[in-house]
Amino acid sequence: MRFSLFSSALVASLIGYGSTIALVLAAASALGATAAQTASYVFAICLAKAIGSAWLSFQTRVPVVLAWSTPGAALIAASEGVTLAQGIGAFVVAGGLIVLTGAVKPLGALVARMPDQIAAAMLGGVLLPFCLALAGATKAVPMLALPMILVFLLVRLRNPAFAVLAALATGVGLAFVLGQTGAVGGAVVLPHLGFVMPELRASVVLGLGVPLYLVTMASQNLPGFAVLRAAGYSPPVRPALLITGGISTFFALFGAHTVSMAAITAAICLGDDTHPDKAQRWKVGLVYGAVWLCLGVFGALIIGVIAALPVPFVTALVGLALLAPLMGAVSGAFTAPDHRFAALVTLVVTASGLSVFGIGAAFWGLLAGLIVHGLESLARR
Known about the structure:
Helices cover 73% and strands 2% of the residues. The protein has 17 helices and two strands. Helix 4 packs across helix 9, helix 6 (116-140) crosses helix 9 and helix 7 (142-158) runs parallel beside helix 14 (311-321). The protein is globular and about 60 Å long. It starts with a helix and ends with a helix. The mean pLDDT is 85.
């Protein structure tokens, strides 16, 4: 294999892992996961990405690169009063819905009818509180956060994909130099997969499972397919939905939330720099899968390093990592004048953190936006 296949896969994997692993750990913490369950969560989702990327790339001869659902992790991290078993039940439902979307055409058509602006506004409402927390984290640990922000802004001018990774390296280095870390736990051992029996609770399925499915489809899978088309490939939509949905459902039993098509990191693997022969570029998916397998193996050590860092540092890193997704979500939410008010209602209700009958704000924001959209559509008619 060409060395460029390895370099592209390695860069894409490190960016995807380093820029959002803190958010995944925050999601596990929100569900009350123990240290062992968190290690299982990370290992399971790394395995899901490794297996899915390698399998789809080999079967379709298209360079398919998978990602964990970053908006989905943010949605989970924002949830309150949800146990790990209930969260896993929601993950199983979300994965099952992705499978059904690939298998049943009417369901896919129904999802496609949802206004993109309302889906984007729901995502924006989920991400906004995390980005707002960046200011408070900066005040709490200015010696760490301010250099991180400066590095983030400078690197972003040249290469936005590396900005969060550079900020992470800067913050970790400063934390150890300044003595603002605790004891580093974890070990270089293969973590085990810990099975958790899912609990299906209606309020959690509606408040977490359905929104997780929708944000994964709208903000990850659809852009991922678009990136493949832009690179000159015919995206394997049905196989990708069936495989990612099936893998997500299986690995949910060990703590992992959904995996999906990648967009930003996929673009790194789709250019001529990866392989000059477009027909051979699919092999990057095999290397990408191998890199993610290694990241899963060393997950316990990486988790130990992040756990030793100050909590405000992790909050600041998450806020920086979600600025670009928030910008994309808000931009998409307010593109069409006819949908702007409905999108605004969706964003405000979702960001409010409203919880009624145990159902989270994402569901109520989506419902409020669809009601306003329906009323405005009737008035225009």
